[in-house]
């Protein structure tokens, strides 16, 4: 596919409401639905980044190959919840996670866009990377078919904790679908560290957006 043409199609899924609204929101068209997202402007995690649109578009257009129906899905760094909403509309059992201060807006967006529209209502859970993982997400009960992540690597000091979190939440069979915008050298370094624990495959590349979409699974421990 021509990168710029597909990138333009992805970005065209976003629309701004006509006229002034009491609560500012942005609209997105995915899975035949109009999704309304309220953003909080006081935090990185409360804005819809382009990587989320790339991941949503991939989930929608590859629904046969990556069938979400009745699958256990966790999103880390869910932010405003757009990716979790799309996965829910596609039939997944979703756990949307993020930092405590983002959960109110996340829950609001999820409820508003999935109530009476989804087979399984998404759950919201606090997850600070690397913190109390055994307590809040015991390995014995982590049974996720998919882990979704959009733009979780940026200028923050918690990259090692992020890697530990990826590792903790994944079983041998968990598929990670991860969209990332490359801004700094940090992203490349993180990818190198990530490859020590996971087999990583680039499945889409949008140079015009500086975004890559990856699929990853844990390396086979028995052969490691």
UniProtKB/TrEMBL annotation:
Alphabetical keyword list: Methyltransferase, S-adenosyl-L-methionine, Transferase
Domain of life (superkingdom): Eukaryota
Coiled coil segments of this chain: none
GO biological process, one term: methylation
Transferase is among the record's keywords: yes
GO terms of molecular function: protein methyltransferase activity
Protein name: Methyltransferase like 21E
Organism of provenance: Jaculus jaculus
